[in-house]
């Protein structure tokens, strides 16, 4: 595991209050689970793989929707796996630590799913190839990720006050569309969610609570003075945070 992956895992391991602050993560899991049920209304996957399961928001919904399926839920952070297991003790789910970019689990799977993990990947296109190789013919990969415009209110506040901003530069849906592998067809749908943020302090605290405060690689830390200016700007002009969500669906060809 490289240093940045290690840092990501450490942040999420330490996110003891994740469930209390992860409203957007829960809503995205609901959004994805509903779409999965629609797409697979006429079929029931025998085996399901979830990567980046976190504390099990999507895991719980997959288990409820497909109670007879063999579900393997994975995450890079051992602490997240532990918390998911504690939440879902009554569910027949197999949990294991795994880096979703390097899926070291035997396929095939009729469904591979993930909610708000893909934006952490370092090489998305290669990872998609590896994941789709694990799909059964006709199987589906369905996932959500963050798109440009997410956290825009905080980025704007930092820019207006000359403060370095560690918000990642997310990839837009048109670029993601070009990264689907051969051997199937994929598409991205886009939706927008808003999360109440009464002030900058609350927003930044929530990021730390869910383990998502790691800045973009190579970004310059903000000085205390510039950070305070950005926070005051946010408090004057904003009361919510925007999240642009990409929902991707890939269907593997049948012979």
UniProtKB/TrEMBL annotation:
Pfam families attached to this UniProt entry: Methyltransf_25 (PF13649)
CDD domains: AdoMet_MTases
Keywords carried by this UniProt record: Methyltransferase, Transferase
Annotated InterPro entries: Methyltransf_25, SAM-dependent_MTases_sf
Highest taxon listed in the record's lineage: Bacteria
GO biological process per UniProt: methylation
Location of the Methyltransferase domain: 48-139
Gene Ontology MF annotations: methyltransferase activity
Leader peptide range in chain numbering: none
Protein name: Methyltransferase domain-containing protein
